[in-house]
TrEMBL record:
Keywords: DNA-binding, Phosphoprotein, Transcription, Transcription regulation, Two-component regulatory system. This is DNA-binding response regulator. It holds the Pfam family Response_reg. Residues 154-219 form the HTH luxR-type domain. The modification 4-aspartylphosphate is found at residue 73. Coiled coil: none annotated.
Amino acid sequence: MKQFESIVRREGSPSVASDKTVPLVLIIDDDAAIRRSLSELMMSVGIDCIGFASARSFLEAVLPDRAGCLILDVRMPEVSGLELQCQLRSDGYTKPVVFVTGYGDVELAVRAMRAGAIDFLTKPFRAQTLLDAVNVAIEKDVSLRAEAKAIKGHVDRLSTLTPRQRQVLHYVALGKLNKQIAFELGITEQTVKVHRGSVKRKLQAASVGEVVRAWNALPIDVRNTCSLNCAGHAS
């Protein structure tokens, strides 16, 4: 487990005054003793953490934008850990989850893992086992955040293309040659070359391969919308 310089713990605090590069673990458990124990464990390896006594208090909090994960108790009053996981997924919340529970239940474990949990640990468990799971979860979140940032960059750059440049990009991504694109769009091959150059420049791509990779990295709904618009313009 990587060691970090800044160590901060807050119980239900809406903010943590710490280095944004330090991972933040959100502990949601209705047992105060468990929250304290887990917080101390995270602090021992230099990970920031915030504790919440219920799903409701977690959902109402304004949280720092930091890489990290959730440690969720399975059985809690009002909203269970599994119900919270389901709600977060439906809301598009992607932060990885590690479940801890005092009730070993194979069915619950299967449901949690199928819903994307990193691990499902039954108390008592070794501290290192939890730390290993948290480390995997943090690494996954770092990767997800980097991927989301890259996709946002692609989408932002795509928005700078003109309708004609989007049409050309669409056909380039389909693997069509310049003369084929020219025929599809009713323009000259030289004009296609000019548009391809503009697309590469605006997408900050050094090659056609990078242009295609940038296109493929876009969310499917964005690609589909662009493709439909291109087909409409080309018809």
